[in-house]
Amino acid sequence: MVRFCTGLSSQTSPRPNRFLYTIIMSSKITLFIYNLTIGGAERVTVNLANQLTECGYQVEVLVVTEDGDLIDELVPEVELSSLSVNEMRWSAIPLARHLRRTRPDVLISFMTAANVMAIVAARMARISTTVIATEHSTKSKVRDITQKPDLILAKYLYRYADHVVGVSKGVSNDIREWARVPDDKVVTIYNPVISEEAIATTYEPPSHQWFHDDSIDVVLSVGRHIRQKDYPTLIRSFALLLEERENVRLMLLGGGELTSEYESLIAELDIEDEVAMPGFVTQPYPYMAHADVFALSSRVEGLSLVLIEAMACGTTVVSTNCPNGPSEVLVDGKYGELVPVGDPDSLKSALTRALLHPTDEGLLRERAGDFSIKKAATEYEQLFSTTQ
């Protein structure tokens, strides 16, 4: 594998000679994920696919089901393919056939279930493709019984991948422990979260009235309405905050299986007029840029893309000190306060301090640059070269 992308834009990269260009373009990278609905790992897939294409690779995004709003964000040069099966668990044989036919140089899979199928399928196909499994969360902390079969399989199969990527040092250490993968196979590569252009962009405020009233402070969170995000703790902490500050509002972007539960809690606390849940938005950056504080209340995070995105927008952040990503992103509290998981009182106090003493925007944007798309793509390329 020839390394070509060095973190420079295509406009400033040196023009390769024809022989080198031919080698680069013959290198095919397949990225495998369930689908491209709006989510952290799905956005990472799109960011990495687009950047590797810019670096000169032939890139394919392979999905199980061809649906999701993020499909439209793939650049035209990325090939989108589908296995056309209903569930990930039935994908091993179709995936093996696909790999045998297309013979990519590198297969990168995203999330535990896809990782398991990628490792099995590559061995079934009997091809020399480099298999890189990426793990996005701390699996030893998972309590969801529906994920247990994947974790059991991953524990025995991850050692057969060429590399296993953890999206934070905490996730990588967790992989070594619960999956017992040899140290030399586990690599930490932070997710390709943000572009340099996005960090430098100034965003117009969203149309919602709260962002056009200087007397109102907006606390924002973005994510799926699932147990892992622990929005009840954030909602309860906001209710406590509202007792002290009448001019504060809470906005939760996203949706999911627990939306109605959150609505019931908000009604129970009698704060319907002070909380808004607009649902999923395709472009959350304007909301982040004009919020006064971004809050993350998660129980578990691999890295937390939204935390980094908020920092890239220059917004003060507060997060639970959950395993494992936030403490790494915030460097143990240097870039934003960390509070205990599931503690509304501590989160309320941290939100109060953040509203009174916001973090310097330039400092936050600078830290967000450590999670740039180009930097991650370059580190993946270095990984390719070690097995080619």
Please summarize what this structure is.
The protein is of the alpha/beta class.
Structure in words:
- By secondary structure, the protein is α/β, with parallel strands linked by helices.
- The N and C termini lie close together (5 Å).
- The protein is elongated.
- The chain folds into 2 domains: 189 residues, 3-Layer(aba) Sandwich (Rossmann fold), CATH 3.40.50; 174 residues, 3-Layer(aba) Sandwich (Rossmann fold), CATH 3.40.50.2000.
- The protein is built from 15 helices and 13 strands.
- Strand 6, helix 6 and strand 7 form a beta-alpha-beta unit.
- Strands 3-2-1-4-5-6-7 form a 7-stranded parallel beta sheet, sandwiched between helices.
- Helix content is 39%, strand content 16%.
What are the segments in which pLDDT stays under 50 over at least 5 consecutive residues?
6-25
CATH architecture of the largest domain: 3-Layer(aba) Sandwich
Structural class: alpha/beta
Radius of gyration: 21 Å
Question: How are the SSEs ordered, and which strands pair?
Answer:
Blueprint: H1 18-25, E1 28-33, H2 40-54, E2 58-63, E3 79-82, H3 92-102, E4 106-110, H4 112-125, E5 130-135, H5 148-157, E6 163-166, H6 169-178, E7 186-188, H7 196-200, E8 217-222, H8 231-244, E9 248-253, H9 259-268, E10 275-279, H10 285-290, E11 293-296, H11 305-312, E12 317-320, H12 325-329, E13 337-339, H13 344-356, H14 361-368, H15 373-385
Parallel strand pairs: 1-2, 1-4, 2-3, 4-5, 5-6, 6-7, 8-9, 8-11, 9-10, 11-12, 12-13
